[in-house]
Amino acid sequence: MSEDLQQNMLNQEPPEPKINVRELIDRYLHYWLWFVIGVGLSVFIAYTMLRYSTNIYQSSATILIQNAKENDVLSGLNANTGISLFPERMAIGNEIALFKTPTILRSVAEQLELHKTYKMVGQNAGIKKSEMWNNSPVVIRAVGPDSLLYNVSAQFELTVLSSGRYELTMNETEYLGKHNFNTPIATTIGTISFDKTPNFGSGTVGNTFLIGLSPLEGAAAGLNGSIVIDRADKTSDLIAISMQGPVIEKNNAIIRALIDAHRQEKIDDQNEVARNTTDFINDRMAYLSKELGEVEKDAESFKQEHQLVDVMTDGQSYLSKRDATEAKIIETNVQLKLSEYLQDYLLRSSWLL
Question: What three-state secondary structure class fits 302?
Answer without folding.
Answer: helix
